[in-house]
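S1.2 Input.
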Amino acid sequence: MRTWPADHDVPDAIMQPREDVVLEVAVEPEVGELARFEQREGPFGGYRRSVIRDQSTRVVTERTTYRLDVPWFGWLFGPLVRRQLRRPERSDPVWAPPDRLTTRQVNVLGLLAAASLLSAFSNTLFTQTVAYAGDDFGVGDWGRGVGGMIVRLGIILGLPAALVADRIGRRRVVVFLAWTAPIVAALGSLAPNFAALVATQAVSRPLGLALDLLVAVIAAEEMPRNSRAYAVSILAMANGLGAGAAVILLPLADVGDSGWRVIYAMSLVWLVVAVDLTRRLPETERFLVRRADTRAAVPMQRRRLAVQMSVSFFGNLLLAPASFFQNGYLKDERGFSAAMVAVFTLVTSTPAVIGLVVGGRVADQRGRRRLAVTCVPIGAVLIASSFFFGGPLLWMAAISGAVVAATAYPSLAVYRTEMFPTGRRGRAAFLILASALVGGSLSLLLVGALLDRDVAHGPVMMSLVIGPAIVAAIVWRTYPETAHRELEDINPEDTTRPS
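S1.3 Output.
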């Protein structure tokens, strides 16, 4: 509620329908009301705004009653929405998507963000703990690199999920993966040796990755045309929180030689997300439309697929070893404890949220290509530079690299689902992800071998910047601009849009 005393002017704006986070429509006011408005378009399950003048005191009161259900992230968006509804200015807030989301879209995006928490934890678990598990089992950098390669190449186990999702729907497969990924990940806590640990994570990580790619598919199919990159940025932030949960638990590795096992056991906590997805996640409307269509399946666009796979392959040449060997670098060359490694990871990666927010908004409003071409190589150089320095320069290079790389992420990630028709979107997303993992796996082997021969981290990482440079060239030469376009305009094969 907001009030204006009798001797104050009432802003003209409160007597007009809002057109920011909610589009209002004026309705017949009740007795004692100067005006009444209800939601015409917007995210609220229930909404009413009334302007009332007290006949005795002449005080004017604006009362807004609403119900907003943002699964899992109401604690973040609830206060932002409340603050916006109290403002007399009606401009769109920076944190809001370019499009006005519906109740269904808000619900789906919240559930997908929760699924991203789960998938990120499963995907990050082995990378964050391999240095400590390797020490416990007496495995060096080469052996850890081989283990990382095997875990990444396990992505082939996710192929059935992608294929089935294009046939029976996204929802059923996502729910299955949300249950199985944390259960299999938790088996790592019981591993009797390094090979057994690698085996469990070579199954659980592909399940988490398959979940992640199907989350992106659902987001592309459910979000409006001007907010797909925004959704990618939200899911990336949730992904960061899930990965951050694994980092926060990292100090448990210092409890003892086998303290890392407790972190794996904590995977079972994420089953609460699986329960919620089972209860509330709907099937995408675009898939339902396609399933009702009796036409033959559309062919895969091979050139688009080859370009996307190339970008993922070369982009991961630096990112995979930079993230995989970072903890070992901090631990062995900079003398960081497990707790200090966790602090470093959180402090240097949390500011990436700024890049995700800016990148998502710019990609939706001004376009994707130029943003990606500019930020990808700059971010790569900064990330590689962090392996040259100690002290403040180490922290500054890592933070700035994370922010710049995160700014490019929504632009690149949204292409992976936009460029393919509904009947091939899951399969294409899987093949693109598989290409990224192959590139990362080969890079891990190379970097692991060089580090075991006492080559310094810095020169090795800087040499891999060639990968992101190639990515920028491919994007500039071959990528179309997809901002402000419906998926059916980008993919004419999908001629029927959901109503």
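S1.4 Remarks. The longest strand covers residues 33-41.
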